[in-house]
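**Archive record**
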Amino acid sequence: MAATSFASLSFYFCILLLCHSSMAQLFGMSFNPWQSSHQGGFRECTFNRLQASTPLRQVRSQAGLTEYFDEENEQFRCTGVFAIRRVIEPRGYLLPRYHNTHGLVYIIQGSGFTGLSFPGCPETFQKQFQKYGQSQSVQGQSQSQKFKDEHQKVHRFRQGDVIALPAGIVHWFYNDGDAPIVAIYVFDVNNYANQLEPRHKEFLFAGNYRSSQLHSSQNIFSGFDVRLLAEALGTSGKIAQRLQSQNDDIIHVNHTLKFLKPVFTQQREPESYPQGQSHASQSTYGGWNGLEENFCDHKLSVNIDDPSRADIYNPRAGTITRLNSQTFPILNIVQMSATRVHLYQNAIISPLWNINAHSVMYMIQGHIWVQVVNDHGRNVFNDLLSPGQLLIIPQNYVVLKKAQRDGSKYIEFKTNANSMVSHIAGKNSILGALPVDVIANAYGISRTEARSLKFSREEELGVFAPKFSQSIFRSFPNGEEVSS
């Protein structure tokens, strides 16, 4: 009897380990910052010269605009990065779609709603109502007709939100505000979630779009036979034909798009749902199971602009806010992270390199001087970045940034869920970790000079206030002068 119980216990323990391992492999759930989820890029890439990028082409839709950065550019190909900037006009509806790669979206401007449809997760937003006088009984008496709607969570987003887009998950966006939504999307093409060619692909669930005068893409229903599609979906041939419609990919909704949504208060975060809706759906399904707790119930967006979330704050220099898998768990699936930086006038970011990720830097506001050095000690980028420009900084390349007189705001997308940086100066830095004598002998300076170098920024972490009051001016090819 004891042997049987032990055997049963061992069996269930093995099943538990197997399930945990399978979930980890399926969703990439790992807290090891050294573990890579990448297939690797083009081995012949050298990154001898970096360039700031702006969108190369744009595609207009009925209610919006999509701008594409040059995916054929060596920097994008070698790092496996694909980026677009999208504008959705008021009452604009970005039709449902999914991608072959994981991605992150940052909302530069505007607010609205989004929905992501996760397979196997319950439709926790439910509503039933009755409409009277619509049907007649045999005796001619008016009877009620029941209507029902249920769907997965709908999420409110606003300016400053970072939204996770896992590969293969259908999503949509709707602008219910008075101002256009402007968003930057960054996708990690080299992630193992992409089993296709190392190129971004977008699959439309509805509508279509024209990428150029010669090329257009239709939605996934367009390739099926209408009769077979109608039979598979249990609908009429007419509706099946409508599924193959030729709408744009961003359309204008004449009336407000209606769906079940929580009523948010100004004091609460958008992800906080009122008591009753989520709890009612919980009891409907008899409590949460393991899949829902680990996957279905993930928070999909976090506001990275919120000053209270800042990880580093210097009242004379600025703030740094980081999102990783510890603070935003769905990043375990997406295997990306994000950092938002707000620098005050003439503030400096401590020289650093990204240990385990490439960095995609997008300028939001102001101007910043950036210098990047490669493994040969050569300067591969030395220029001013302006709003709307994007710069890819390869893994381990050393970068130095200094805000200009108008300050700067930018966001960085990293190709690792737990990206790590190594600061050269300040608290918790390389110089701070080295003994004075090691520094002195490494650079041929005196111990006094080494001590001054080691402790000159000892009270600051990550972001530094300007040390010198004088301004140094550099001239650009176009004749413009900026302070550095």
User: Anything to note?
Assistant: The chain has ten helices and 29 strands. The CA atoms of residues 126 and 150 lie 4 Å apart.
